[in-house]
UniProtKB/TrEMBL annotation:
InterPro entries: Mog1 (IPR007681), Mog1/PsbP_a/b/a-sand (IPR016123). Belongs to the MOG1 family. GO terms for biological process: protein import into nucleus. GO terms for cellular component: nucleus. This is Ran guanine nucleotide release factor. Gene3D superfamilies: Mog1/PsbP, alpha/beta/alpha sandwich. GO terms for molecular function: guanyl-nucleotide exchange factor activity; small GTPase binding.
């Protein structure tokens, strides 16, 4: 399946307080196991990829790129020394998220693309990935002092991708990461907050 072939549906997040479009093949992990209240996790039923939404207290780092890298370090803690960062971009305006007042700044996001080893949880499994692509986006909701993360994880399992199709040096992402980028763009284009009370605000 190419990025152009992905079918989407609108999904309610956090009990309907937020919403975004996700691929129809992605299912809610909370249907099979417990997920922390500040997270929403969806797995691809026809592959190995996943997408995680996470509400975090805004880190006291004014620079967006530096704050994004801080969150990335938390995500890949044990593999930080072996991580490779492909690109880091931003700020970009999130068109579907509108500030709550006319005086507020436009909601902005920063994105980083990295690859890491499989990580402790995936090591030793029958289908252990050769590496994992991590597409991390941080949406800064300044008015509610929140860093909202969207993380697309793309494990590359031997036999499921063409060797040499992914190369950070030459910028070759391969089909799996290309689909992840398309999914990220769709999510950011449709992400909305329906109830700001989710962030402790009335």
């Amino acid at each position: 399946m190419t990025a152009q072939d992905i079918q989407y549906r609108s999904v309610q997040l956090y009990g309907g307080a937020m919403a975004a479009d996700l691929p129809t093949t992605y299912s809610d992990v909370s249907d099979i196991r417990q997920v922390p209240d500040h997270q929403e996790v969806y797995l691809d039923t026809q592959g190995y990829s996943s997408i995680i939404f996470e509400i975090l207290q805004r880190v006291e780092i004014p620079d967006g790129e530096a704050a994004l890298k801080h969150h990335l370090a938390d995500l890949v803690a044990e593999d930080m020394n072996d991580m490779k960062i492909w690109s880091c971009s931003g700020p970009a305006v999130v068109p579907s998220l509108h500030p709550r007042s006319d005086q507020a700044e436009k909601v902005q996001a920063w994105t980083i693309l990295a690859t890491t080893p499989p990580g402790e949880k995936m090591r030793g499994r029958e289908r252990e990935p050769a590496f994992v692509g991590v597409l991390l986006t941080m949406v800064r909701l300044v008015e509610v002092e929140t860093d909202f993360l969207v993380v697309v994880n793309v494990p590359h399992v031997p036999g499921e991708f063409e060797e040499g199709s992914v190369d950070a040096v030459t910028g070759k992402m391969g089909p799996l990461l290309e689909r992840a980028v398309a999914i990220r763009e769709k999510v950011l284009g449709t992400l909305e907050v329906r109830d700001w009370g989710l962030f402790g605000e009335e």
